[in-house]
Design a protein that fits this description.
Layout (H helix, E strand, L loop, with lengths): L15 H16 L8 H4 L2 H18 L6 E2 L1 H10 L6 H11 L7 E2 H14 L23 H17 L9 H11 L5 H12 L9 H11 L8 H5 L6
Helix pairs in contact: 1-7, 4-5, 5-6, 6-10, 8-9
The structure holds calcium ion (3 copies).
Protein name: EF-hand domain-containing protein
InterPro entries: CML21-like, EF-hand-dom_pair, EF_Hand_1_Ca_BS, EF_hand_dom
Keywords: Calcium
Length: 238
């Protein structure tokens, strides 16, 4: 289809992982299995979502051996091994690069959530010794955090709700249309454009699932390790 292929930041092509992610999201959107009527039902779940993210903090701290507030490549390899994620060295490096939103070369807490979501949704996943067929969800939790997986599913549902044209990206038009349909008369354009700016991390005019999730961690009030000052100074005002 080629949709979105020319939309990368100047000179940068979407990475392999991003292309897989967009394809996965487009397939989910087109499957018609999601029937969210309004974003409000997601907002109602913010507290639960925040809780499930907070549960990840314990895992994060465990692998952040030196307590720096971030996980480096070696720590990540160790972490994925213990979570029984079967993945090649090269894939770890790709995942690391994809999740390192701020290009700091280490994975901060909120980036760690993005990383786990990619592991979960792209199925670069564990339990490969089990009897399940490829593409079939296993009964067993894939990353060992069932509550978090339920949260990821909820956020996928939200993303699909906004991706009106089902191409695996949320565009400005998608977002404004979704808001207008969800709550008529609520200035969808204005709200939509503000939210869009927050979500479009690399400012390339489209929002990928990764960017959506990353914005989501802010909406539910999640903080990076040692982020207190940022919140006190007003955070993002949501
Ligand atoms: Ca980083
Ligand atoms: Ca779209
Ligand atoms: Ca973007």
């Amino acid at each position: 289809m080629g949709v979105g292929q020319s939309k990368g930041v100047e000179g940068s092509q979407p990475s392999k992982i991003e292309r897989r992610m967009v394809k996965a999201m487009a397939e989910k959107a087109q499957s018609g299995q999601f029937s969210l009527k309004s974003f409000n039902s997601i907002i109602m779940k913010f507290h639960k979502i925040d809780e499930s993210f907070e549960a990840v903090r314990i895992v994060f701290r465990k692998y952040d051996k030196d307590g720096s507030g971030a996980i480096d490549m070696e720590e990540l390899k160790h972490c994925l091994k213990e979570l029984k994620v079967e993945i090649s060295e090269k894939e770890v490096e790709e995942l690391h690069a994809e999740s390192d939103m701020d290009s700091s070369h280490v994975i901060e807490f909120k980036e760690f959530i993005v990383l786990l979501a990619l592991v979960y949704l792209l199925g670069v996943s564990s339990c490969s010794g089990s009897t399940s067929e490829p593409g079939q969800p296993t009964q067993k939790s894939r990353i060992g955090l069932p509550q978090l997986e339920a949260t990821f599913d909820t956020i996928v549902e939200a993303f699909v709700f906004f991706d009106r044209n089902k191409d695996g990206y949320v565009s400005k038009e998608d977002l404004v249309d979704a808001i207008n349909r969800s709550s008529p008369g609520r200035q969808g354009d204005k709200i939509g454009l503000e939210r869009f700016e927050e979500m479009d991390w690399d400012k390339n005019g489209t929002v990928t699932f990764k960017e959506f999730l990353f914005a989501f961690t802010d909406w539910v009030g999640l903080e990076d390790e040692g982020d207190d000052d940022f919140r006190r100074e007003g955070g993002l005002g949501i």
